Amino acid sequence: MAEQEKSSTLKRLRNRYRLVVMNDDTYEEMITFKLSRISVYVGLSTIFVLLVGLTVALLVLTPLKYYIPGYGNNNSREQLQALKIRTDSLEQTILYKDQYMNNIRKVLNGDTPVQLDTAKLKVSKPDISDD
Fold it and tell me: Per DSSP, what are the bridge partners of residue 32?
């Protein structure tokens, strides 16, 4: 049953049809095409691939690509990278300053226990000689 459906589908694709363009007033044949379904599919697929290829080539090879959102140019890309690096360093600096201010605030409020160093230091006395 499956082979019969495949063969009937293949036959339908290969059946030949005639497309006639006629003048409506005189019924004169203007142009005649002999087509099959498979040739129509191949023709439409070819036209689609060509249109997509031409559109991509038009966008890639011409300055139209700069009008695509997010594409930009090399100069703006370099500026964007420099701004990103600068922003990251500024964020890091702000974090360090906030941490420093919080530590100062804790010390001034007495929130952190202060441990005194009670270890004895051995300091040698300087030799004072009268020469």
Answer: 20
- 0.70 cut: is pTM over it? no
* 20: CB partners within 8 A, 6+ apart: 29, 31, 32, 33
d(CA 85, CA 117): 42
d(CA 108, CA 21): 95
Of 7, 8, 11, 19, nearest to 43 (Cα)? 19
Query: Structure tokens of 101?
Result: 């201010």
pLDDT one-digit tens code per residue, 28-75 = 999 999 999 999 999 999 999 999 999 999 998 988 887 887 777 777
Residue ranges in 1-122 assigned as alpha helix (H): 2-14, 37-61, 74-109
- What is the Cβ-side half-sphere exposure of residue 12, based on CA atoms within 13 angstroms? 6
8 Å CB contact between 65 and 71: yes
State the CB neighbour count (10 A cutoff) for residue 17: 11
**Residue 72 burial by CB count (10 A; 0-12/13-18/19+): exposed, middle or buried?**
middle
